[in-house]
Design goal:
22 helices, 37% helix, 19% strand, Heat Shock Protein 90, 669 residues, single chain, Ribosomal Protein S5, domain 2
Length: 669
Amino acid sequence: MPTQYQASEIKVLEGLEPVRKRPGMYIGSTDGRGLHHLAKEILDNAVDEAIAGYGKTIQLFRTPVTEAHQAMVGSMPLGSQALTVVDNGRGIPVDKHQSGVSALEVVMTKLHAGGKFEETAYQASGGLHGVGAAAVNALSTLMQVVVKRDGKYHYQAYSQGKPHAAVAVIPESKVIELFPDESKRFIKYENGTVVQFIPDPTIFSTVQYNHKTLVDVVKDRAYLMAGLYFQFIDKIETVEQHFYFEGGIRSLVTHINMTKKPLHDVFYTTGVWEDETTHKKITVEAALQYNDTYTERVESYVNVIRTPDGGTHINGFRMALGKVLRDYAEKNGLLKEKESFVADDLREGLTAVVFVKMPSNDLQFESQTKSKLNNSEAQSAVYQVFKDGFDTFLEENPKAGRVIVDKIMLAARARMAARAAKDAVIRKGALEGSSLPGKLADCQSRDPSESEVYIVEGDSAGGSAKQGRDRKFQAIFPLRGKILNTERARLDKIVAFEELKNLVIALGAGIGDTFNPEKLRYHRIILMNDADVDGEHITTLGLTFFFRHVPQIVEQGYLYIAMPPLFKVSANKQDRYTFTEEERDQVVAEIKAKSPSAVISIQRYKGLGEMNPEQLWETTMNPATRMLKRVTIDDAAGADKTFAMLMGDEVAPRKKFIQTHAKLANLDI
């Protein structure tokens, strides 16, 4: 063990070494999320040009790695993919930088280098520390860049951030050879940039891009940049999609509320706020529409960067929303005596998008992944612009104003009723866990990290589960019949529903604003239902309850779905369990190949109750052999939309979904 700390032990990472040494510091992670962050960084450089007023078209290509790519850097894993972004902006500068090399090389190979530190090049951009393109380059097996300026094509290639050669002018024929598909539009542009990169498989746990995720990334930016034309050309799935929204974030609000019933027309406002001291300007756009649901969806962006954790701009929006609606309600006598509402009441059914554009050299985020904005001036800017616009909207649209206030007051009254109902239950000691429900067959362990509870429908399955479990760490909670659809249920209905109230008591952590994760009695909460249509419906009802009312359990990775087998294949006094028809057929084929004369019997399990305790333990409950699916929320917005569509009151969107996906359903007849 070293006893001295000397200068020789100090390591200085040169160039892009810091990025490769600690990639998570620059892109958040090295899993699929980090992989797709690379696409956002390069795409946002093109969008920044559009924000600055240059370029009207952006293309994103996903293509398989070619032999030409392999020839440049050697072999790459099977299935490697290249992403290419093409824009018709001004093109990255290529003239000689003060460092002695082309500015293009500086931008692509040096951290904290770019045109976004000074306001002369970009008044607003997604780049912050000048690490975007360079970080992507550092984490790529191969990157190629072509810049078209003044009729000339300037080219440079890199591997793991290191240039193959100096920036050189190449003929148009070479551009077409390098990028046969991507160059078709590019060569017609007066100026522009092509950036292609192949992620490094030694850095990322996966180098397979997801088509839907890329579509969402492109669509997100198309909504924000009204009038900007996007194309996504996926050569792997042979799909080409175009995105153009003249309405900008107004169109995004309409899209979010597509499966819900809007209560009024979309409100939209925009304005420029100027700091009285520094005279720096912030452009604010905001759009809002209430719907008839009980859930909120507020999206926020800064210079096209999505900020999922909000920040100061959202603080300003919420402060202004509350101020305007309180003043309007009081001024127009819309509140009954002793009535009032709190911030949470404003959230029910609220759909909003807040988009600010501000000087990039002043941006302050909590991390390089830019999930939360910290600039205090953004709060003032959004507060003032939104307040002025929303004030005017309510005065000019009194019907919409009354509908919104009525919606909020309905939420306030329901909140008070829910609190009264919950308090009544708490006074009896029920939700505090002082008396666990009799139907719960608890486990012996009191350590939540090693304890798990199976939520099972029906006495038959519950009986088998109780007998087959390992009592040391496995608890069983049987439900009687289908539980309440909680998609549109408030807390008072939930605590009044006996089965759900008992479930909340059994879990021990409370519900709503009293939820305390430290009191959760199990860190594996497993929905175990029959592998048929009824069982899947019960599972969906359970998922709806957890997603809508105790989302912390899902967010912390404590919710699972058990995967009971569909078939038991018996032959030669041996049983094998399979989970799909394809797996069943494969097992049968294997048995016939080994023992052509074997007598094979196949049992299709219609329900968990058909299994005896030993079979249920062996197939579904034994940690050594079982299969569990952990429930996660990678796309909370997508989950919200799906639950609202499938479990809500609107029939038309659900009917369309069923018709669209009918062929994908696995119906056992």
